[in-house]
Amino acid sequence: MSLCLFGFVILGLTKKGWKMTCLSEISKNLKEHKYLLLVSLVFFGVVFSGVNSSNMAYWMHHLQLKLPFLVLPLAFANAKCIDDNLIQKIVKGFLVIATITVLHTTLLYFSDMEHYNNMIAQGRSMPTPIQHVNYSLMLVFATSCTYFLYQETREKWLLFIGFAFFIFMHMLAVRTGLVAMYACIFLVAVKYGWEHKAFFKVGLVVLVCAIIPIMAYYTVPSFTGKIDYMIWDLTQLSQGNTADYSDGGRVISYSLGIDLFMDNVWMGTGIGDIYDQSLAWYQTNNVGFKGKVNFPHNQFLFSMASTGIVGLVIYQLAFLVPFFKLRLYKVPYVLILFTIIYISFLVETSLERSYGIVFFLFFFLLWGVRSDVRE
Question: How far is CA 63 from the centre of its chain?
Fold first, then answer.
């Protein structure tokens, strides 16, 4: 990832012919994209959190993790070649890569269906090119892109791979991805219905979306195993068995986040000390603790626990000010991207993994810099 970031900086700060952009032009570009540069607040929020962090090695780890929030806005703000044609090519390239990974994962699944179905039925996930939740969220975005790109180009192959991605998501059976996918379908349907006064079609889409998961439960073995495990897991949770199971572990992690936040409301534990404080909490509060520390499975709660209210506000300003000031909610791709990432925030720490950070930032800034130019 470091090499990719370095490459973005070089591309962003050079002109045609690989000549270095002069400082005055770089300064002008940065002023033109002032709203987009607010994204860098996330990086500086981590820098500021070093003030109340005693574990400087872990603080440096998070500083490096958040480096894309500094580097990518600078690179995109100085990129002058981004137009609608280039964006279409980038999206098509993304869809080609997504298709290759889906084919690979599908072939892997069918090479030993029984084994992978048993894995999912035991609460584990299928092997995926990257962490399974991040992968599922990227595929949700890819699925949405096929529809929006079809609206622009009328290329029928897009509908075919979009439908294939939709089917594959049920086979992959990642709950966060499935919830995000159906939420996006509902959002697009409501938006379409509102703009075209086609409310009957919206109702029809909602009905179909209610039926498909039921059909998948009886026809897709991996989906069936995931639902059955979830029901069993929730039963264990209701009986007080929370330590070693998926949803039980999430509940414990929420208690951890709330307790750490209440102890350090304004500044949090300090991002550098979040691991040490979490470990101490588990050793004190979790009977039968086996050494694995689970951070709060909620990006908002993680931010509040590690950086307090100050950090939470900084994070939201960094995303929401550009989103509304640049009217990115009118760009379907970005609206869906934000829907996906904010749904993931409710059950995952998406901004604490490098893949999640770069995926979100790249596409957010891609349309953001284009919208900034138009504004």
Answer: 19
pTM higher than the cut 0.85: yes
Q: Count of H helices and E strands in the chain?
A: 17, 0
Compute the distance between CA of residue 341 and CA of residue 369 in angstroms, rounded to an integer. 19
Listed in sequence order, the residues at least 6 apart from 92 whose beta carbon sits closer than 8 Å to its beta carbon are: 149
User: How does pLDDT run along the chain (375 residues), one tens digit per residue?
Assistant: 444 555 555 555 555 544 555 656 666 767 777 788 889 999 999 999 999 999 999 999 999 999 999 888 888 877 777 788 989 999 999 999 999 999 999 999 999 999 999 999 988 899 999 999 999 999 999 999 999 999 999 999 999 999 999 999 999 999 999 999 999 999 999 998 998 888 898 999 999 999 999 999 999 999 999 999 988 888 877 776 665 556 777 888 999 999 999 999 999 999 999 999 999 998 888 766 777 888 999 999 999 999 999 999 999 999 999 999 989 999 999 999 999 999 999 999 999 988 889 999 999 998 988 765 555
Phi/psi for 241 (5° steps) reads: -90, 95
- How many CB atoms are closer than 10 A to CB 210? 10
- Cβ proximity of 225 and 117 under 8 Å: yes
SS3 per-residue string spanning 106-140: HHHHHHCHHHHHHHHHCCCCCCCCCCHHHHHHHHH
DSSP string, 269-285: S-GGGHHHHHHHHHHHH
Cα four-point dihedral sign 76, 81, 85, 88 = negative
Which residues, listed in sequence order, are joined to residue 20 by a DSSP beta bridge? 14
The rounded distance, in Å, linking the Cα atoms of 22 and 29 is: 11
Do residues 223 and 216 lie in contact, with contact meaning Cβ atoms separated by under 8 Å? yes
Parse the chain into domains and list their residue ranges. Answer: 2-374
Whether 371 contacts 85, CB under 8 Å: no
**From residue 179, how far is each of 190, 274, 320, 348 by CA, in Å?**
16, 29, 22, 13
Q: Which DSSP string do the residues of 20-41 spell out, in sequence order?
A: BPPHHHHHHHHHHTTTGGGGGH
User: Burial, 194: exposed, middle or buried (Cβ in 10 Å; 0-12, 13-18, 19+)?
Assistant: exposed
